[in-house]
């Protein structure tokens, strides 16, 4: 396979060596079950889980008792949305979400719609943002939940979470946010942003796969959720099952490292992303950036290369790992629902690539990747009848070279 340049950090990230070091003892010497209350081997595991819970809670301005550990963000989203829907069903059955959400939110809402709930799917603007005023307009007397993501995994757009939180709080609607892509990259304060429930996943911030968390508000206006997984009553009855102690310890370490380095690390990542964009735009015409120009994750660059099929481009550039739509939905055919939601045609969506830059990328990698991509775009276009026709007919005096 040769050396791969990994520019797919929104799909998943490698485990940070410091995280792995922190986890290792909990596979071997401290292997206990955190629910075993009768002996020190259990106490040790419980102690580690509780210390980790505190670290994760503090990172988002929450209390340890407001954190529920899950197997990842898919489970956290399921628990949040189904959990609120069934707990508050007597109060109302209307749920608000938006078209650019992750499938782990949209599919849960679709299933609930089949189970008798009413779901309003809001449009997003051409940058991928939800308008808080639109949230307000859609709230009805029977609205129980708004589930709107913090940062988009495909285009990196960051929603105005504070404004959405205000709208929901004023209307007495529970606000859940899928903050999977935001944790460790942008500051999150659940009180300041009036978030009631939030989903997180360790593997997006250099932690292990198979571990995530759900924040569920207890302070001021407590939120209750009906559990999905029942059994031994762990996690205060909200999520049964033996705790994944090594995963939890790893998640806490990953959160701690990302928070400690956030400003400096995100600045470095942003400059690599800008370098990638600059290198591409120097050589490639007819391309545009998808996502918000400012309110966007530092490492995300989603680009449409007109007259280029993204799948063909990826098969030519074998040494760069990138993504043509979200990894979680790339098993399903068709153009990305996020790109369609921001107004791209099916053809434009299929000409789009997501580059997501992370902690372990270097400037050298960005330069090598950029030149491989430029080369592939030029070669593909040289065989594209549509491109050649456009080139031969375009009036150079009026056609702008780049449309970003
Ligand atoms: C925004 C968002 N939500 C949810 C998920 C699912 O997370 P997990 O892999 O932890 O189930 C992802 C991962 O792709 C994501 O990016």
Give a quick set of tags describing it.
12 helices; 404 residues; alpha/beta; binds pyridoxal-5'-phosphate; Aspartate Aminotransferase, domain 1; Aspartate Aminotransferase, domain 2
How would you sum up this structure in a few lines?
The protein is of the alpha/beta class and 404 residues long. It is 39% helix and 13% strand.
Major beta-sheet overview: 7 strands, mixed
CATH 4th-level superfamily of the largest domain: Type I PLP-dependent aspartate aminotransferase-like (Major domain)
Give the strand line-up of the largest sheet. 2-8-7-6-5-3-4
The number of strands is 12
In terms of per-residue confidence, which ranges show pLDDT below 50 for 5 or more consecutive residues? none
Radius of gyration based on Cα positions = 22 Å
What is the molecular shape? Answer: globular
Mean pLDDT: 95
The helix content, as a percent range, equals 25-40%
CATH class of the largest domain: Alpha Beta
What is the N-to-C succession of helices and strands?
Answer: EHHEHEHEHEHEEEHEEHEHHEHH
| Tally of separate helices | 12
Structural class: alpha/beta
Bound molecules: pyridoxal-5'-phosphate
Portion in strands: 5-15%
């Amino acid at each position: 396979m040769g050396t791969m340049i990994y520019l797919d950090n929104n799909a998943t990230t490698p485990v940070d060596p410091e995280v792995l070091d922190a986890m290792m003892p909990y596979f071997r010497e401290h292997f206990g079950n955190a629910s075993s209350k009768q002996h020190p081997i259990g106490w040790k595991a419980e102690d580690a889980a509780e210390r980790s819970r505190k670290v994760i809670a503090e990172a988002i301005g929450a209390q340890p008792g407001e954190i529920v550990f899950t197997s990842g963000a898919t489970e956290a989203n399921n628990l949040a949305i189904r959990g609120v829907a069934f707990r508050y069903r007597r109060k109302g059955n209307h749920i608000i979400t938006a078209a650019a959400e992750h499938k782990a939110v949209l599919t849960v809402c679709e299933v609930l719609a089949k189970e008798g709930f009413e779901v309003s799917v809001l449009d997003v603007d051409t940058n991928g943002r939800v308008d808080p005023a639109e949230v307000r307009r859609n709230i009805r007397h029977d609205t129980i939940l708004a589930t709107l993501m913090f940062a988009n995994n495909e285009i990196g757009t960051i929603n105005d979470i504070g404004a959405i939180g205000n709208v929901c709080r004023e209307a007495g609607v529970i606000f859940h946010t899928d903050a999977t892509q935001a944790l460790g990259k942008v500051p999150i304060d659940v009180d300041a942003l009036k978030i009631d429930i939030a989903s997180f996943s360790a593997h997006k911030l250099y932690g292990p796969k198979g571990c995530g968390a759900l924040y569920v508000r207890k302070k001021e206006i407590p939120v209750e959720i009906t559990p999905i997984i029942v059994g031994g009553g762990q996690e205060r009855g909200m999520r049964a099952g033996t705790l994944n102690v090594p995963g939890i310890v790893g998640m806490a370490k990953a959160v701690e490292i990302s928070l400690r380095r956030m400003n400096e690390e995100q600045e470095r990542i942003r400059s690599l992303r800008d370098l990638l964009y600059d290198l591409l735009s120097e050589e490639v015409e007819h391309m545009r950036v998808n996502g918000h120009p400012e309110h966007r994750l530092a490492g995300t660059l989603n680009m449409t290369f007109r007259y280029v099929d993204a799948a063909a481009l990826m098969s030519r550039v074998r040494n760069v790992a990138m993504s043509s739509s979200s990894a979680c939905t790339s098993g399903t055919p068709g153009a990305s629902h996020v790109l369609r939601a921001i107004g791209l045609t099916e053809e434009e969506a299929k000409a789009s690539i997501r580059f997501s830059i992370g902690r372990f990328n270097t400037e050298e990698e960005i330069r090598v990747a950029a030149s491989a991509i430029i080369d592939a775009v030029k070669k593909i276009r040289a065989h594209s009848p549509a491109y050649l026709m456009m080139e031969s007919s375009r009036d150079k005096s009026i056609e702008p070279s780049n449309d970003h």
